[in-house]
Amino acid sequence: MGSLLMRAAECARVPGGNALTVDRERFSTGITEALEAHPLVEIRREEVAAVPGEGLVVIASGPLTSDPLAESIALLTGSERLFFYDSISPIVWADSINMEIAFRANRYDKGLDDSADYVNCPFDRLEYEAFLDALAAAQQYSAHIPEDVPYFESCLPIEELARRGRDTLRFGPMKPVGLTDPRTGRWPYAAVQLRQENARADSYNLVGFQNYLRFAEQQRVFRMIPGLENAEFVRYGQIHRNTYINAPALLNETLQLRNEPRIFFAGQICGVEGYVESIATGLMAGIHAAALARGAEPRPFPRATALGSLCHYMTHADAGHYQPANITFDLLPPLDEERRLRFRRDRKARHAEICRDAAYELERHLNEGHAGVPKSQETAEAGV
Description:
By secondary structure, this protein is α+β, with helices and mostly antiparallel strands. The protein is built from twelve helices and eleven strands. It folds into three domains: 1-46, no CATH class; 47-81 and 245-383, FAD/NAD(P)-binding domain (3-Layer(bba) Sandwich); 88-242, Beta Barrel (Elongation Factor Tu (Ef-tu), domain 3). It has helices spanning 4-11, 24-37, 67-77, 125-137, 158-163, 215-222, 247-250, 275-293, 306-316, 337-342, 347-367, 377-383; strands at residues 57-59, 82-88, 91-93, 103-104, 118-123, 190-196, 203-206, 233-235, 238-244, 256-257, 260-265. The strands form three sheets. It has a six-stranded antiparallel beta sheet. The longest helix is centred in the C-terminal third of the chain and has 21 residues, at 347-367.
């Protein structure tokens, strides 16, 4: 649908299989230049410490919303802000990876253009057991984290995963399935995947290795990973607070506050996970705000589309147990009875039918003339 951020992401893309991975500096530079050059955009580089008291407002302050603004949002919504603890993975310099041990491969050789986007560090059983023991004994930072504040279950620190069982990591971020070690011709017992961090390809991210270990302990333990025995770290893993509102209790399906519809929320603060999901809610909030500015009634995207289903989840989930979500097929409506029976044993065919329904409904929605979105067939197909 002509999203500036998706265009910028394509221009700044780095290899990452089917994931959307970008060179962050190139990505942000491209967006900044486009906004600075736009004749209808005024940029003010200043802190917003409170929600503006009038006019149309889109709040997209992200998971690290400042305390003053978060307090203003809490006063506006009449509820305490929610937050959980999230964490980030370490990054190593590419030239410090031992490629005599590590090897390039995508899982089952899949990926964009069948390219090998990942560097894989293989473990045998003894290496894996020794790594687990070292991880269990490693010192963590003494964080001031209240016991009643949860971690985000989809992004748990590896030390927390390791505490849940000795095989948890090798069935999680260290799963070896689909990765054939060229030295042995077999799948390893466990594996760590590294993904290119920027367009220069001079640094790699340890995929799924978010943690809260002391920096010296990260260096000691992660150098036990085969191929990283001499690893030099660009950044160590860290933990941070992630703030979001209780969307099911506060928002409608056009991302407007129910008690003050001039205010929209978008991005991670409204309770979505993932780059594309955050971009999508920003695009939808902008489209709906534009409709309101023109005196039109904002229209939710159809439930059958991924965009509509994401908003439906955010606004209809259990408000007492709400956690952010990525888009999945489970959020989309099921097929009708006849097609469900016809494709009950073929998941790919079921998914293809759901996608066809979504594409049809999105095209119909756009061609009906949603404010701010061209009616053209070309735009509808680009959106799909």
